[in-house]
Amino acid sequence: MIVITIDTLRADHVGTYGYFRDTTPRLDEFADQALVFDQAFSGMATTLPAHTSLFTGLAPLEHGVLANTTRAAGGSAFRSSGDVRLFAEMAHDAGWETSAFVSATPLEEHCGLAEGFDVYAAPEGFERLGEETVDLALAELARPVRGPRLLWLHLYDPHADYSPPAGFDLFETDAEFERWLTERAIPDSVLDRGRRFHTRSAINRYNGEVRYADAQVGRFLDALRASSWWDSAAVVIVADHGEGLGQHDWRQHGGIFREQLQVPLIVRFPGEGGPRGRTAVPTELRDVLATVLLRLDPALAEPFAAQATGIDVLAGPVVPRALVGQRTGRDLGSEIGPLYALTNDQWRFHHRPDEGDALFARDADPHELANLLEQRPEVADELRGELLRILGEQRTLAEQLGFGDASRASLDESILSELEALGYTEE
């Protein structure tokens, strides 16, 4: 299995997801041979919690990693236990050779995700260019391996601050870009922690970073395709979260708007008969490995599925399902408190204890510009109840798994009070 995670890659800045700029020619080419998930979401728009969900099959509130260890007050690393283990640990114990090549400090070895990897290569500084990380991964790919292998490649290039390498500052403001900005009500600039963020130049540079990351993915895929692994490998390409880029007055990420939580997810299953095309099945990061493993190694899928709350989303007909995202409010220096989002087949509901709730039509208003809370209060009430039920179930599981303290600390007091009234939490 090859897992490629691209940090901070907005789904709507990828060609196969409809972006008008040629930012991702190599990803688009790969998507033509794979299955594209059109409704994939992260449980948190934060690097470490999102990756922990991917590799444990659990929601952030369930596994208890609710901030980056080095970037947030109270950040905590993942710790394996008898009840919850990383996929790499299971693969290693099953005889797989395991290697990881990550590009930034939030995923350095002490974050907890290194368990189970024979090789875990992180940068010495805060981050490194994608080509350096890909070079390491290519050397590993070329090394002879007798049995199955897991290789995880993480690229950080689209993350702020946006500084595309030479030859990749390719995009300029034009009429089509202006239309794109207007459709999303993106202002000329936003104020972010006392600094003025000019959206046009920033998005142009962000797109250059995306194009660079795409080229590095292409380098790796070329080598993989030329190797003996291509026919038998499952290849997963996914982002951990998106990016605000000035939309809804957010410069970066960590919030709950669609552009921050929706992620590109493209999977190539092994063999000629694997699923191809597109699917609109609601999918979370915790579902990814549960879905892929059943079609790659059913024996290994069994213990992973036993701990995961993520599901095989391709097991049958598409069933309406509510997806939950959250923000803990634990970012270093942030004045924004906890936020919660619920997405179903018709609506996106935001629970915002500090500023009031919001309700958006999922498909008719994909950019979340028209708050329908006052027009449809009965829908908001129903979704608020569904959100509380899901948070309550996740909170209960976290207690059972030994992660209750972290989960409780991430919940707003008003949410905790409502959950306690419903019998989901204990003092």
From TrEMBL:
One molecular function GO term is: arylsulfatase activity
Which UniProt key words apply to this protein?
Hydrolase
The cross-references to InterPro entries, in alphabetical order and at most eight, read: Alkaline_phosphatase_core_sf, GAG_Ulvan_Degrading_Sulfatases, Sulfatase_N
Superkingdom of this protein's organism: Bacteria
Signal peptide extent: none
Q: What is its EC number?
A: 3.1.6.1
Domain Sulfatase N-terminal: from-to ranges: 2-293
Q: Where are its TM segments located? A: none
Q: Which EC class is this protein assigned?
A: hydrolase
Q: What is this protein called?
A: Arylsulfatase
Species:
Engelhardtia mirabilis
